[in-house]
Write a structure and sequence with these properties.
The complex is a heterodimer of chains A (123) and B (301). In chain A, 49% of the residues lie in helices and 18% in strands. The termini of chain A are far apart. A five-stranded mixed sheet of chain A has the order 1-2-3-4-5, sandwiched between helices. The model of chain A has no long low-confidence stretch (mean pLDDT 91). Chain A is of the alpha/beta class. In chain A, strand 1 and strand 2 form a beta hairpin. Chain B has two domains: 168 residues, Globin-like (Orthogonal Bundle); 115 residues, 2-Layer Sandwich (Transcription Regulator spoIIAA), CATH 3.30.750. Chain B is 66% helix and 9% strand. In chain B, helix 10 links the parallel strand 4 and strand 5. In chain B, helix 3 packs across helix 4, helix 3 crosses helix 6 and helix 8 packs parallel to helix 9. The N terminus of chain B is likely disordered. The chains are: A alpha/beta (123), B alpha/beta (301). The interface between A and B is medium-sized, with 19 and 19 residues.
């Protein structure tokens, strides 16, 4: 099942609604990394609130996504990881190191807004 | 026991006619009833000599000894152990809070068994065959009584320990909001794996419901933790980050610092501040609060 990607100002939002297969995840990753360029987006939010499991493949794909997006000049935030999911991930050693996380969509947008304004100040 | 076996070997084959086990037991019980005062006295004295039940006065020992003796004889007579079991549990309930140990309880029951066996030896020393039959009836029952009392005591102890664990768990740690989006989690006492799991669950749930951005975990009240718990703490910090909250750990004792270094914690993942005050100040800075005394504010130009 393809994940819809919404454009919201300078950001892209991908809200995952149901469990994804590995192929779906890779498709999502490629679509986001591609669209960051075509829309000249400054940030990407992936909402995983609906997921009650994040396995090692999913974690790695999300981390790769974040790194690839950064190389294309934008920031990624993973939002909505459930408490139980978070602890299970950590126990499996999947800590999404180097990837920004936020409580929910609102927090994610706030984080990206701040990031954006701080880079604009600098520039 | 060796004594008995030596006596038994030449005599055992001649399983004797007439007297059934029940008759033997009746005779045994009658003997114990007859010599109640003296045997009880002797037993209480041996308890004191063996320095058991030191937490109790000799009067108390004598009272309990009397009760146990009567229950013991009754259990021998009736062959039912429920009353004795109930009494053992009741006794345990009374003496455990006074610091009576398992070895003492087992010890006194074994002493009683010895005292009674000696009295049987003395009584039937002229008639080995009879002594043999009496002991055949006495030993299994006596062992079973010793077993019943010991098991009752241990069960009672375990029940008390379980109750106390539950009480501690209920006292366990609150997750408190001190400012909007700032939680503190003061941890006091020993952390066992179960409590650690519960703490993590509470914290992660607290972060979600309070929409916290910063959490201060204060472990001033934790003297030491093993590497398993320390690992768990690091995992909790990382899991909180996945929910978008920053964790500041405060009040690490030198021992805990050593444990953390020992398990090779990456300091980049763990934000620590010396004490709770420093932790809260740091958290306020992260959240963009600035706390200024009122007086200063008015005086400054």
């Amino acid at each position: 099942m393809a994940v819809p990607i919404l454009k919201q100002g300078p950001f892209l939002i991908a809200s995952i609604q149901s469990a994804l297969t590995d192929t779906d995840l890779v498709q999502l990753r490629d679509a986001l990394v591609g669209q960051v360029g075509s829309y000249r987006s400054r940030g990407v939010i992936v909402d995983v609130t609906a997921l009650d499991v994040l396995d090692s493949f999913a974690s790695r794909t999300l981390r790769d996504l974040a790194y690839m997006v950064r190389l294309r000049g934008a920031e990624t935030v993973i939002v909505g990881i459930q408490p139980e999911v978070a602890f299970t991930m950590v126990r499996l050693g999947l800590t999404l190191e180097g990837v920004a996380t936020a409580l929910d969509l609102e927090e994610g947008l706030f984080y990206l807004d701040q990031k954006l304004s701080s880079t604009q100040e600098k520039g | 026991m060796h004594e008995v076996k030596n006596l038994k070997s030449p005599l055992a084959p001649s399983q004797v006619t007439g007297e059934s086990t029940a008759t033997i037991l009746r005779e045994l019980v009658a003997h114990l009833r007859e010599n109640r005062t003296q045997l009880r006295q002797e037993w209480a004295q041996r308890i004191t000599e063996a320095k058991l039940l030191t937490a109790m006065s000799s009067d108390e020992i004598f009272t309990e000894a009397t009760a146990v003796y009567d229950q013991y004889v009754e259990a021998l007579e009736t062959g039912t152990f429920e009353a004795l079991q109930a009494y053992a549990r009741n006794l345990s309930e009374r003496i455990i809070p006074r610091g009576v140990e398992t070895h003492e309880v087992v010890g006194i029951v074994l002493l009683l068994r010895d005292v009674l066996a000696r009295s049987l030896f003395a009584k039937y020393q002229g008639d080995f065959g009879k002594l043999n039959r009496i002991l055949d009836a006495y030993e299994p029952a006596a062992n079973r009584i010793a077993n019943t009392v010991a098991v009752g005591f241990v069960q009672e102890r375990e029940r008390i320990i379980r109750e106390q664990q539950e009480a501690i768990r209920e006292l366990s740690t609150p997750v408190l909001q001190v400012r909007e989006r700032l939680l503190i989690l003061p941890i006091i006492g020993v952390i066992d794996p179960q409590r650690a799991r519960q703490l993590t669950e509470q914290l992660l749930r607290g972060i979600r419901t309070n929409r916290a951005k910063v959490v201060v975990i204060d472990i001033t009240g934790v003297a030491a933790m093993d590497s398993q718990i320390a690992n768990h703490l690091v995992q909790t910090v990382e899991a909180s980050r996945l929910l978008g909250a920053t964790v500041i750990v405060t009040g690490l004792s030198p021992e805990i610092a050593q444990t953390l270094v020992h398990i090779g914690v990456e300091l980049g993942k763990m934000h620590t501040v010396g004490d709770l005050q420093g932790g809260i100040e740091e958290a306020e800075r992260l959240l963009g609060y600035k706390v200024v005394p009122i007086g200063d504010n008015q005086q400054s130009p």
